[in-house]
Amino acid sequence: MNKRILKRVLDESDYIIKNKSTVRDVAKLFNVSKSTVHKDMQERLSEIDKDRYIKIEEIFKYHIEIRHLNGGEATKQKYINIREKTVNQV
Question: Using CA atoms, how far apart are residues 52 and 46, in angstroms rounded to an integer?
Fold first, then answer.
């Protein structure tokens, strides 16, 4: 494996473990696609360090469990903002 890719995978995994970050956050920070982060964490990290891979899997499982809550909150805020704009226009 390329040294640059190896370093990126380890840096991404450290960041996720330290900050409990999402794939999107990591992709933005490291300036790579979400697909790249997924491949790094699912395929490459499992070959490099099994312990880190297990920690990352636990974090991602938690994110999957709560995503419906985050989505619901985002939708609620969207409609609150729309309501406030229409009230202020009247």
Answer: 8
